[in-house]
Amino acid sequence: MKIVFLHKSLVMGGVERILINYLNLLKNESDLEIEVVLAFETEENIFRKDIPESIKVTYLVDKKHSEYRNSLYLSRKNNILNRLKYKLLNFKWKIECRNKLNSIIKEYDVIINFSNHFDPYINFKDNKPKIRWQHLSLRCLDKKELKKEISYLRRYDRIISICEDMKEEISHIESLRNKIIVLYNPINFDNVLSLANDSIPKVKGEYFIQVARLEEIKNHEVMIDIFYELVKKGIPQNLIIIGNGSCLKKLQAKIEILHLEERCFLLGEIKNPYPYMKNAKLFLHTSKREGLPTVLLESMVLNVPVVSMDCPTGPREILNDGECGVLIPLNDNKKFIDSVFGIHNNDQVISQYKNNIAKHLLKFSEENIRKQLINMLFEVSKE
């Protein structure tokens, strides 16, 4: 069976890590021939070299044109000519990408759209079975976005939800109810544990950690506010934040305003964050919304307890309703502060969380998820 995965890029991100995990799960399946189609070839595709050699990779826009497009995009606000060029070329590129994409996917038995980026480009008129991964809660969309999302989801033969909460959300839409299955994000436990043993610069003292893109949705400003209050309460731990993004300068300024330069550290983008995570006292998570935040699972694999806002969707399911970590009602900063302060030196509570984690993680094992995925692929290909 020939399968093609579609995704925008392989930049540093949770969805991209999960795609790589799936490709590695399937690489030795002799009955499968796999190709990955990415939109843009850029230097930022840091996970490109992690794709197994046996899997073909195709870019719809090559490196030269990707870089030119990006330069026009960045300069469009301050240059009217570049703004016009960008609009015209973007229109042309969209048509070319649509044609190229559909000429590729017509050769495959099953098409898997791993995110919503390619929704407007796919030809849904042919009879090829199409699968769409749903990484984001529908509750996070406004009315216009929700209407658009549902209109695309209706065109797919299967929708893969990454947690039960998300499946329940989608099930309220009658036309989608019978298309949904749940596949948890697979975690390669051995790989995470192995990478966690890599050497890193020594970190002085105990610390809490957060790993995520520095974007508004991840709510790092609130995390820094919470940490500031914890410092005032006298906690000895520092805070390490790993990631990069559009909020970097804003967060740097906030750290300076609160005089936390010696306590809160932005380490930037680190491909292997696991050695830092392994040695953390707690993993803190204040995101406004998620899908199924893989980084929480990875933290648990490394036996590091999590304190997380109970955002839609994922944290409640991952933390097993609070049995495997602390769940805080969304936006309740005071309770977050009190909970971290209450357990940061309570070895008995932390030990209990660690015991519960070991049992709960089995449902996220790669082997279970691999079997479910392969069964689903063969099932949908015969319909």
From TrEMBL:
The keyword Glycoprotein belongs to this UniProt entry's keyword annotation: no
Domain Glycosyl transferase family, first and last residues per copy: 202-350
GO terms, molecular function: glycosyltransferase activity
Residue runs in coiled coils: none
InterPro entries per the UniProt record, alphabetical: Glyco_trans_1
Transferase recorded as keyword: yes
Biological process (GO), any one: carbohydrate derivative metabolic process
Sorted UniProt keywords: Transferase
PANTHER family tied to this protein: GLYCOSYLTRANSFERASE
Designated name of the protein: Glycosyl transferase, group 1
Organism: Actinobacillus pleuropneumoniae serovar 6 str. Femo
Organismal lineage: Bacteria, Pseudomonadati, Pseudomonadota, Gammaproteobacteria, Pasteurellales
